[in-house]
Amino acid sequence: GAVVSQHPSWVICKSGTSVKIECRSLDFQATTMFWYRQFPKQSLMLMATSNEGSKATYEQGVEKDKFLINHASLTLSTLTVTSAHPEDSSFYICSAMGQARGYTFGSGTRLTVV
Amino acid sequence: RKEVEQDPGPFNVPEGATVAFNCTYSNSASQSFFWYRQDCRKEPKLLMSVYSSGNEDGRFTAQLNRASQYISLLIRDSKLSDSATYLCVVNNNDMRFGAGTRLTVKP
């Protein structure tokens, strides 16, 4: 079946540093990838939608200069949290959509900013 | 109004019980509908799609009412392993999640 690899699984970083999260579709080409964020006991909130080779579309309230998304190939999208602060601590998860495959989620990245 | 609304629960039921979850959505143009299951600190996993005619997968039955913009999930003969958060998901070119309904099945 369709597999999406996301790493790192967890990361602890100091306030002010940047963190890059990778999302790879292993056995299919993902035309569209979605990035979500989930705070404790809350739902997954869509942050942005990225299509290969074009700029990401960000949801209202999500700072595009803080959450940099790059979807340079059909199998890789990255989310970089720049100048991370403790309030950015959350569970970040990607989802990839390939033709006729529906949506497949990565295993998520738990970010803790100290 | 939230795009997808669910009763957050928690639902605490004994093994063998039947439990039903409801979900409403605001966008009448939504194209497809799903129930996902999310275990603590894990990614959501697809439980089942929801079709207008209603569909069943073992102990799980999903229903969709487009006129009322309402989706339901029925779990019969609950197992301990059914304990999780159940997410209602509505797709209209991107997936929108409800806040989830937490279910705990007790011995």
What's the topology here?
The complex is a heterodimer of chains A (114) and B (107).
Chain A: E1 4-7, E2 10-13, E3 19-25, E4 30-38, E5 45-51, E6 57-58, E7 67-73, E8 76-81, E9 90-98, E10 102-105, E11 109-113
Parallel strand pairs in A: 2-11
Antiparallel strand pairs in A: 1-3, 3-8, 4-5, 4-9, 5-6, 7-8, 9-10, 9-11
Chain B: E1 4-6, E2 11-14, E3 19-25, E4 32-38, E5 45-50, E6 55-57, E7 60-65, E8 70-75, E9 84-91, E10 95-97, E11 101-106
Parallel strand pairs in B: 2-11
Antiparallel strand pairs in B: 1-3, 3-8, 4-5, 4-9, 6-7, 7-8, 9-10, 9-11
Describe the structure.
The complex is a heterodimer of chains A (114) and B (107). Chain A has strands at 4-7, 10-13, 19-25, 30-38, 45-51, 57-58, 67-73, 76-81, 90-98, 102-105, 109-113. With 114 residues, chain A is mainly beta. In chain A, strand 7 and strand 8 form a beta hairpin. The termini of chain A are far apart. The mean pLDDT of chain A is 90. Chain B has strands at 4-6, 11-14, 19-25, 32-38, 45-50, 55-57, 60-65, 70-75, 84-91, 95-97, 101-106. Chain B is globular and about 40 Å long. Chain A binds chain B through residues 34, 36, 42-46, 49, 91, 93, 95, 102-103, 105-108, 110, and chain B through 41-46, 87, 91, 94-100.
Q: Brief description of this entry?
A:
Chain A has 114 residues and is mainly β. Chain A is built from no helices and 11 strands.
Count up the helices of chain B: 0
Task: Please report the total strand number of chain A as a whole number.
Answer: 11
Shape of chain A: globular
Low-confidence stretches of chain B: none
Q: Strand-and-helix sequence of chain B, N→C? A: EEEEEEEEEEE
Query: How big is the Rg of chain A?
Result: 13 Å
Averaged pLDDT of chain A, please? Answer: 90
Counting copies of identical and different chains, the oligomeric state is heterodimer
Helix and strand composition category of chain B: mainly beta
Helix content of chain B: under 10%
Which two protein chains have the largest interface (Cβ within 8 Å of the partner's Cβ), and how many residues from each? Answer: A-B, 18 and 15 residues
Radius of gyration of chain B: 13 Å
Helical residue percent of chain A? under 10%
